[in-house]
Amino acid sequence: ELKVEQNPLFLSMQEGKNYTIYCNYSTTSDRLYWYRQDPGKSLESLFVLLSNGAVKQEGRLMASLDTKARLSTLHITAAVHDLSATYFCAALNRDDKIIFGKGTRLHILP
Amino acid sequence: DAGVIQSPRHEVTEMGQEVTLRCKPISGHDYLFWYRQTMMRGLELLIYFNNNVPIDDSGMPEDRFSAKMPNASFSTLKIQPSEPRDSAVYFCASSPASWDRGGTGELFFGEGSRLTVL
Predict the structure, then answer these.
(1) Low-confidence residues of chain B, pLDDT below 50?
(2) Which phi and psi angles does B55 have, rounded to 5°?
(3) Which residues lie closer than 8 Å to A57 by C-beta, 6 or more apart?
(4) CB of A62 closer than 8 Å to CB of A55
């Protein structure tokens, strides 16, 4: 059964710094997703990664996928307070179910 | 498009009462998912439908939970009888296309229904 693990689960960082969130998944998956959730809000799709070596960037966020290592990363460059949120990765399993990690709560200090 | 619409946004009920949560997916989306979110267990997939047919309900916690999708534009999740441990945010999400036909499988979430069972 597919399991998705994120680390760290909580991250507090200063504005202007760089950091990376890691997402490991336990079995082969063809799709990897990143979502953002603000407190009390819904989940917003950030990236969909479809193949090994895929890299996508939007503003200060960049996501990548290594299917051989079963690893995806979400890199934050020069963090700003507006990026404070919980970030989830999710993977598609062979039964067409999308399984989510527990999320990384990111707190960016001014 | 208005996006995925869920109702009610908030529900407070007493243990033993029946709860019905509603979802209207994005028009044209073939897949509909129900997730439950709690602090302890994170996001759990309860059930999903393809073209109104339930495909996998293995995540439904107990027989007290049931879900239906009578047509392409409406789904319900029912809890009867409700218990305090059912308190959570319930999300409905829809997806436009099957991944095995080239679709990305990207999910579009509703705003959620926050359920509190006293």
Answers:
(1) none
(2) -100, -45
(3) A63
(4) yes
Are A100 and B42 inside 8 Å of each other by CB?
A: yes
| Closest residue of chain B to A34, computed from CA coordinates | B106
Q: Let me know: does B96 contact B28? Beta carbons within 8 Å.
A: yes
For A31, the closest of B42, B104, B112 (CB atoms) is: B104
What is the dotted CATH code of the domain comprising A4-109? 2.60.40.10
Among B43, B44, B51, the strongest candidate for a mutation testing the A interface, having the largest count of A CBs within 10 A, is B43
Answer yes or no: are the C-beta atoms of A20 and A8 closer than 8 Å.
Answer: no
**pLDDT band of A51, cuts 50, 70, 90:** confident
The encoded tokens of residue A71 equal 């690893």
